[in-house]
């Protein structure tokens, strides 16, 4: 509506719950609408209209009954909201026409009835609101322009404004304040608008974002899009590209989003929607910072900026694509009923830093119809794989690209006091039948650069080969050379990927951490190591690795006894971890998490520290592959022992598999 019209429609409303300053905060429905027309040119007031509204939930709070004076019987006899809105539109249009006018402006004493009650309820009920409800003026802000000494506009009430008016001799009534403003400038100076729809867009990492404009929404359905989130906050204005869906370590949505509003006033109103519902789920809303928003939504990639430069495009994310998929194959999969914007230019394949495809891609469509046709292909087959399709956002494109392009081949842990040396390599995709000899043959002439006992096979939780291995090289340069020369070489009809990594990264895996395509995760088990975990005779600086163990097991890591000097190796000292009775409580834990392969390459001399005092080391050979600690304790029932340790991976390479040492 034209903001400078000569006709003003004063509009009020009430809900079945909280009203006043908390109107709309409890998600209760509208039960009362009141309006009155004011002729600004003739300075006349029209008829007062008061309409009851029947809510879906026929229940009124005590506060509502006290403030409105309404009863449940009156509400039951009323018309639903859509009928009352039609009545409002017909009534106002008729009166405006009788005045010889063709436009009017809505005026409210608080934006809450429009932003927090009417728009959210209409959105949930799929009602189309008249155009006048997308533009209005706030009496408080207009009054503040006339009387700046009356206090902040947000804190003004009808009572306080009337009291202020009565103290001023030049202004005879509250209504004259509004009229004088409109007559002098023939327009309101503080016209507020409600956006018809959310505008997607990109955000640069260097763009300043006010901390007072960002919230975090938690508990979202995983399939929610930016438009769904904008609909949840209907009535409030979200900044362009201001919805950033958060992803987990696997690149999937985690049910959270960061939302950026145009100003702090809209952010504060958004916080009032804490635990409002999206479908059957309630959504938590908290304050967030501009830094958090930029971390998720900000990007610097020219490729992404160019891809997202086209306005008003619908973005679809494809997941699970064959690594060999070409743009033409993707276009053929989508079909002629869902043409991609600019053909291949509307496709963006997500890749790792080394150029390998991730199986993800983003697609642009020029309209909603084409996007809907594409979504019908969800879980259909391309090649030999089914493809997942989801609605996406510009912020998600940025986040996915940032994640893959900035993530190292193996995720690093928090900085260690020891500088990380990338003198190791990781082999991924080994045949499960591959042994040490196969790896040495695979390495060919580079085997001479492997440290003694520097080959470490990674086992899964069942104690079987995982297809991964780590190899310690004599220097970072040697590790780099092997990664370059042997990457994707074939071993037994399978190509093997070779990446350079650090000793610390390797250590965490061998201590029970897990590896996946998103990187490395810390050990799941928090029990202390039963064996001397990191100090070996051939290495005089064990604390470098002990710090990594302490990183994940600080409350339970057994305190080492003072270093012992053995008769066989007087030049070296070892930290010995005494056995603890509580270490055997849970027999179902992943043993590899606390019976790790040594994270450094030991020598075979004085490999295990001799326990202090009298005792003997007994080796068990030929154990069943599914034998556990409980089975061994049962086997030695009646004997005294001080501890046990599973053989390390490289030690196992010298003897038979599945052996244990008992002390």
From TrEMBL:
**Has UniProt tagged this entry with the keyword RNA-binding?**
yes
- One cellular component term from this protein's GO annotations in UniProt: nucleus
Role of this protein: mRNA splicing factor that regulates the formation of epithelial cell-specific isoforms. Specifically regulates the expression of FGFR2-IIIb, an epithelial cell-specific isoform of fgfr2. Acts by directly binding specific sequences in mRNAs. Binds the GU-rich sequence motifs in the ISE/ISS-3, a cis-element regulatory region present in the mRNA of fgfr2.
SMART domains, per database record: RRM
Keywords from the named record: mRNA processing, mRNA splicing, Nucleus, Repeat, RNA-binding
User: Per the similarity annotation, which family is this?
Assistant: Belongs to the ESRP family.
Location in the cell reads: Nucleus
Native source organism of the sequence:
Acanthochromis polyacanthus
Q: Where is the RRM domain?
A: 214-286, 315-390, 424-499
Q: What is its main location?
A: nucleus
Which interval of the chain is the signal sequence?
none
* GO MF term list: RNA binding
Name of the protein this chain belongs to: Epithelial splicing regulatory protein 2
An annotated GO BP: cranial skeletal system development
């Amino acid at each position: 509506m034209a903001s400078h019209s000569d006709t003003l429609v004063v509009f009020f409303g009430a809900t079945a719950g909280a009203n006043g300053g908390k109107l709309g905060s409890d998600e209760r429905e509208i039960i009362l609408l009141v309006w009155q027309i004011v002729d600004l040119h003739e300075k006349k007031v029209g008829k007062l209209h008061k309409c009851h509204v029947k809510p879906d939930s026929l229940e009124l709070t005590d506060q509502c009954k006290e403030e409105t004076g309404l009863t449940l019987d009156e509400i039951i006899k009323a018309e639903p909201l859509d009928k009352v809105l039609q009545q409002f539109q017909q009534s106002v249009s008729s009166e405006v026409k009788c005045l010889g006018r063709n436009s009017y402006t809505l005026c409210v004493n608080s934006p809450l009835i429009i932003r927090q009650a009417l728009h959210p309820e209409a959105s949930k009920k799929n009602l189309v609101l008249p155009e006048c409800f997308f533009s209005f003026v706030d009496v408080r802000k207009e009054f503040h322009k006339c009387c700046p000494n009356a206090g902040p506009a947000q804190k003004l009430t009808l009572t306080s404004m009337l009291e202020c008016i009565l103290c001023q001799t030049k202004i005879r009534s509250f209504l004259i304040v509004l009229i004088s403003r409109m007559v002098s400038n023939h327009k309101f100076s503080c016209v507020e608008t409600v956006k018809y729809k959310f505008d997607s867009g990109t955000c640069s990492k260097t763009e300043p974002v006010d901390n007072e404009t960002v919230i975090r929404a938690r508990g979202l359905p995983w399939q929610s899009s930016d438009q769904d989130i904008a609909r949840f906050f209907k009535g409030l204005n979200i900044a362009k590209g201001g919805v950033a869906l958060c992803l987990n370590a696997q690149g999937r949505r985690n049910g959270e989003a960061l939302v950026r509003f145009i100003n702090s006033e809209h952010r504060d109103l958004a916080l009032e929607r804490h635990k409002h519902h999206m479908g059957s789920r309630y959504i938590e809303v908290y304050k967030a910072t501009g830094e958090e928003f930029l971390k998720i939504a900000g990007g610097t990639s020219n490729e992404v900026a160019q891809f997202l430069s086209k306005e008003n495009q619908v973005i679809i994310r494809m997941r699970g694509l064959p690594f060999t998929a070409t743009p033409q194959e993707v276009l053929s999969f989508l079909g002629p009923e869902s043409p991609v914007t600019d053909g291949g230019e509307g496709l963006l394949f997500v890749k790792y830093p080394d150029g390998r495809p991730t199986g993800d891609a983003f697609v642009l469509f020029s309209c909603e119809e084409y996007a809907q046709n594409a979504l019908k292909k969800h879980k259909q087959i391309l090649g030999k794989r089914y493809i997942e399709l989801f609605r996406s956002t510009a912020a998600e494109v940025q986040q996915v690209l940032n994640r893959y392009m900035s993530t190292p081949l193996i995720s690093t842990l928090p900085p260690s006091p020891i500088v990380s040396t990338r003198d190791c390599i990781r082999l991924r995709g080994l045949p499960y039948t591959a042994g040490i000899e196969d790896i040495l043959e695979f390495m060919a002439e580079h085997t001479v650069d492997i440290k003694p006992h520097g080959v470490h096979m990674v086992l899964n939780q069942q104690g079987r080969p995982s297809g991964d291995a780590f190899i310690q090289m004599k220097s970072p340069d040697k590790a780099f050379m092997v990664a370059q020369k042997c990457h994707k070489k074939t071993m037994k009809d399978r190509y093997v990927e070779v990446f350079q990594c650090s000793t610390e990264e390797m250590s965490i895996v061998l201590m029970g951490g897990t590896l996946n395509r998103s990187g490395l995760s810390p050990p799941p088990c928090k029990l202390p190591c039963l064996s001397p975990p990191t100090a070996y005779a051939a290495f005089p600086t064990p604390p470098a690795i002990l710090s990594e163990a302490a990183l994940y097991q600080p409350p339970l890591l057994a305190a080492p006894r003072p270093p012992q000097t053995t008769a066989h190796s007087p030049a070296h000292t070892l930290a010995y971890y005494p056995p603890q009775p509580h270490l055997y409580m849970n027999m179902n834990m992943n043993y590899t998490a606390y019976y790790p392969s040594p994270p450094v390459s030991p020598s075979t001399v004085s490999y295990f520290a001799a326990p202090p005092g009298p005792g003997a080391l007994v080796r068990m050979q030929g154990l069943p592959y599914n034998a556990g600690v409980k089975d061994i304790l049962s086997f030695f029932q009646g004997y005294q022992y001080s501890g046990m340790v599973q053989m390390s991976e490289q030690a196992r390479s010298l003897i038979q598999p599945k052996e244990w040492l008992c002390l």
